[in-house]
Amino acid sequence: MTNGDTANQFFGWLNYDDLNVEAYRYSAIVPQLVVKGMLLTGSDLLAMVVAGSVTHVLVGYAIFMLCAHFWRADASALATALAAVLCSRLSFYGPALEANYLLCYPFLCFGYLECNSGSLLRTTAKSIAAIGLALPALIVHPMGGVVLSCCAIAMWQVHALSGRKCALVVLSAIAWFVLSKLVFPPTGYETEQYEKLLSGLTDLPNAAGWHSVEFLLGHTWHDTAAYLPVWIIAGALACMLWRLAGPCSSIVVTGLVIGFIMLNLITFHSGDTAIMLDRSILPLATMIALPFCVLLFRMTGTPRTLVLSLLLLVIFLKFRDVSFASRQFAERYIAIEQVLGTMKEAGIVNAIVADGDLEDVGLVGSWALPCETMLVSTIHEPDSTGSSFPLIWRDRSGVCAQGSFHFGSDILVR
Q1: What is the sign of the dihedral through the CA atoms of 403, 404, 407 and 413?
Q2: Which residues fall within 8 angstroms of residue 316, CB to CB, at 6 or more apart?
Q3: What are phi and psi of 403, to 5 degrees?
Q4: What global pTM score does this model have?
């Protein structure tokens, strides 16, 4: 909660009375509601930081419990657990990234469909309920409709969803896409992504040199093996589909997976920060986990034992990946603590610091650094007045990056 974009949003949660909803993504406000509720009860900052950090994980856990113990939708419950880690790495430590919710919200709809596998569409109420349970995923991120549609088609191909139910989900996703564009105009960021997609389509001949391709390949084998377990599960899914559902189903579902990957590679062809590139591939976990778990429950004997062993290995490797990814965030937090300690010893309340000086202490300049340092300093000095010891950074050209915040007059310019 004290890192980057999340620190900026958390700062807003604490300082503004209204709910802060980014780009109309209303179903992503659960952690914010928890933090604001604690703020009303007078909780200290550290408790609110911890609560905000764990709530986005507990949302997924609550959906897992709902599928497993209330609906008895075993395949959806297992898929919720697998999706939570299958593509996760850096993005796990960005709880303000709405794409995280595409690892759990779709299972509200598919868990309900699994629970009512023999009765849905026989009553209008159940059809409306299914559409309503799809809305959190549709609202939380622009890719929600794509993920829900791909999952519905995959479930249809594995004969876990009838054609009518598949059509209900896909048509609901299309209807929401059209309605949302009329009611909620695209934000500047979304418009920028559409422009990047069009630009990438015109640059297809140079795909081998794209930053997105280098990132995906680099974290499959060369730099890390973070995405290798994803391809192992995807390969196992293709084989399971071929054996249990037929060649056509295997080709269709594999095509959906490849199509989603291509969509992200094209959109982010010019690159982005590591955490944003990691986030872009995140929803693939849901698309793979759901049909994989459905087919796993149909297997018997030695093949099922082999696939279960593979699944346990992949989950172990992914927990390890998520754990190792925490290092850079922990190192940044410690570096901020050290800089703030140095400032306190020197009696400096606010500072403008050049990029070179930041790099010397292991910090990378970020537009959100003032929010990060204010939060960390206030955690350590909860009784401090004013803005504690915020650190304002300046790039090598000498331009001060203060954002829209005012930090007082006690400034040291280096």
Answers
A1: positive
A2: none
A3: 65, -140
A4: 0.89
